[in-house]
Design a protein that fits this description.
heterotrimer, A alpha/beta, B mainly alpha, C mainly alpha, A: alpha/beta, six-stranded mixed sheet, B: mainly alpha, two-stranded antiparallel sheet
Amino acid sequence: MTGPAPLFEIRNLSVRFPGQGEAAVKGISLRVSPGETLALVGESGSGKSVSLLAATGLVPGAAQIGGEVLFGGRDLLRLPPHQMRALRGARIGYVFQDPQSNLHPYKSVYTQIAEAILAHAPRPRPARAALRARVTALLTEVGIRNAGARLDDLPWQFSGGMRQRVMIAMALALEPSLLIADEPTTALDVTVQAQILALLKEQQARRGLAVIFVSHDLAVVSDIADRILVMQQGEVVEEGPAPEVLRRPRHPYARRLLAAAGLAHGTHSTPADAPAPDAPPLLSLDRLSRSFGRNEVLREVSLDIAPAEIYGLVGESGSGKTTLGRIVAGLDRPDRGRMRLDGADLSQPFTRAQRFAVQVVFQDPYASLNPHRRIGAILSEILVRAGEGDPISGVADLLRSVRLDPALAGRLPGQLSGGQRQRVAIARALAMRPKLIVADEPVSALDITTQAEILQLLARLRDERGLSILLITHDLGVVARHCNRVGVLQRGVLVEHGPVAPVFTAPRHDYTRALLAAVPGRRLRELRADPPDDHSDPLQTGPHQHV
Amino acid sequence: MALRLTKALSQAALTLLVLLIACFGLTRLAYQNPAAMLAPRNATQEGIAAVARALRLDEPWYQQLWYYLWRGPDVQGAKMGLFNWPPGLGYSFRKQAPVTDLILDKIPVTLSLVAGAVVLWFAWALLAGVWAAKNQGRWQDHLSGAVSFVFMATPLILSGILVSYVLFYQLTQAGWPLFPSSGYVALTSDPWQWARHLALPWITLAMVQAGTFQRITRGAVLDVAGHDYIRTARAKGLGEGRVWYNHALGAGLNPVITLGGLEIGTMLGGAIVTETIFGLDGLGRLAISSALDGDFPVVIGTTITAGAGIILMTTLSDLWIAARERRPLS
Amino acid sequence: MSDTLSLPGRRARIDALSFGLILSGLVVAAALAAPLVAWVTGHGPTDQFRTTGLDQMGLPMRPNAEFLLGSDGFGRDVLVRVLYGTRISLIVGLPATTLAMLVGTLIGLVAGWSRGWGDQLFGRFMDVMIAFPFILTALSLATINRGADGQPRIPPEALVVLVIAGFSWIYFARLVRGITRSLRDGPLVNAARVSGASVPQILWREVLPVILPKIAVFWSVQLPANIVAEATLSFLGVGINPPTPSLGNMIADAQRSGLYQVQPWLLLGPGLALFLAVAGANILSAGLRSRLDPHSALRV
């Protein structure tokens, strides 16, 4: 490999946790030079985060770590703890995934940043006034307005994006030469994600930083990486310059990741047609409003959902999309406005038939399935309630209809994978033979390749059973791929709605345009517009099905 | 904020009023014939009836309650009811003194006892608790765990006697009269004697709480030790001492504050056992002796004081947590 | 991905649960053996042996062949009295804690599920309950319990059980109320609601299984506290009254008479029994917690 001498190099690193048979990281090697961005891509459990934490001494002592980690010519794994500590925070900066959980909840942002500076400051310590000025300058530099007045605020008093800027200011406080950014935009809204990526790029250019960018999402990575390294089950399966990996990935796993990224973020392909405009709507919402205290969450929202369509409801956090879903599902009631289902008034408490007709798939299958009960028991209880005569064969039918092995009925939720659990959650909703399913971010807790499978399952249920689905999501790519129509919510107001293709190709509202512009993977889409003559075009390869 | 504070205060006042009425009812139920208890030992039937009439004990209970709240007994023309100004808590039949004065007289003793114990107890609990958490599963953890289990399993009635036997009796026998066995010297008159007289009660009272709170602290710190912001603290290059004693302890302090407030509040009403064993004339002894004597204005007064102590401390700990989180009181 | 930095410790050679079980088992066995020991020695718990149990000065005997732990100031057998006292500790502590658990769980479930004024009312009620003086109430109730003839209307043990349960259910209720509230609007309960489950079904199937291990752990946390509460009440003379032996009134007796300086087992006997009973229950609760509720920190 050519280019400048590497600043940071991992050679044959392995990590094994006690009590676990297989090593979490199995001899990986990587290098990154000043000014370069290396992307480390893989799904959860691939060992991408663990390897970087282990390399810099942030994995608890019980883990067995082997190999070499060179930073500026010194082997970090053989450094005494106090010298390692002197590097962390000073020469190596970290930005972690969720700024909410990564900032101390009871310390002001000033304290947290000043602490990073003081931990490495030579004595005498800088004076308080000088320190405050320095922290203010840092926060201003990362784009926090009126930083001087916000020094003593706690992290929760900032928005998600601002918190991540604080995190970045903390990482850059001491002019590090290496920045490790571990999923730094995953917890953020799409427009905020674009801003944070821009900030990282800008800071990298200004400071000549070497950046290691860890992500599960090739689309995000495609916008920022110089080189890409794909990890699977603790091993590096693919490595190369970004355009090359994105254009012609060699390893099948890399191809699957790429296909999933294309599915998730392509905004142009819309296989589903809008339903006939004159069909009577299944669900009709008429000027729904809802407030919590003085906070008006929904304002006069009106929309119709036709039979056998997937209606995508998009918006960023705080847009009111979840509240709308809860109202439709009968878990909350509107202050004003009315709902109709099949022409009949739908209001709380739902009639028995209405209760069966509207079902819900929740975001987190880990939290919505009772961990103490077996899958078969969970499903058969509902079948009995729905009046099913033979719950045992009913359970098997249900599991088959969500492409699960009926033998899984004997398992506890904890013994299933995330994707399997979400399939069980869908089966539970189907048990009532509903007409409408409200699915609130049904895939955002899942791995990216699993996401595609679950979404395909929902689309298939729509086609096979004539189900309507209200799909609430933050991800425009999901809408483009699977929805018939789309509604865009901004701060409680439905600013735009209609069939997907016209809305996405010619958005009328500024907010829709801003959302579309912020969708990551611009470079990926450019490469796609210019496909290689290779038969292995990643975007033509369907997602791999495992049942 | 002011509105919420007003709400908290009015809630506290309401709680105290309900407490007072409940306590009034309880004493009326418990003492079927208080006049007989209060009258001289060899009083005749007429004498007892005269006492009852003088104290209005022959009227229905609601009139008694009203009289108690509104006027209280007239002592040399001054009304001493709760709704007068200055509010009073009535007049002690036995001690022939205003209840408010009796209580105010005892508060310095109980306050001194609690204050010293709290310092010892939290110093031990926080240091040892974090130390154990920091060394989870190692010998330090087992050692401090064993100590805390011994502390927790030695109730006050036992530890008080043992502390007094070893540190007073045995030391004095051996010619080292470091600590007196009982008594109280006011802080204002002689700080050194004050501390010397209170040292053994402090140790006793602190010991039993230190064991429990050491476990709470350890648990609370371990609860936050897995959180991302602890990793962030290490990623900033902070030392392990600062990571545990500052970041982890700071993040895990809320349950310690809540439970600590409740325990301190309970003690402010009188540490009855400790006061009994060490002969300290505090609120606890006043409460129990008046209850045994049937001197119910004092019983109600000490109950209200104890309730106020609990409400004060729980409100303070709620306020402190709200201030830490910069959120309004919930 | 290592989001949690769990630090797996080395396994202790004997885990807390087994140690606690052994210790508590010994205490229970001792309490059960009390009548047996009384029968073997021929010393009832309140029998006074003024000739063999006291020396010429009228002072208690130190341990000897007839009185294994010596005798007290009335010439009674300390060992037999300690065993009977332990029995009282358990006879009061176990039902009081269990009663408090049942009442507290029921009220906590209802309070946690209700919103608006029901919730408010419960909050205010708890404020009053927590501020209510424990020992004073015990004393008042003991007075009420005395009938016109001076005899108790209900057995004093039962009264102490009621008093202790009356003051400790509140902690169970608070715990259960908190968990129920956190589950009430959570995905587990929402999922059950949309699938048409009734409120009792939700409480029974979704809420109770989450609560049960926690209240089981809390029961074992509250048990030693309630054993201590009985001893303290008896120590202050408002619980189990002499001559019925209780660990608390035996300790009070030893302290008041000062005879433990002559016959240390007057204090050591009941003291050690109380220590072992409380320590056993504490260690048991620590073991139960790590077994049943490993993810929650120690919340007493």
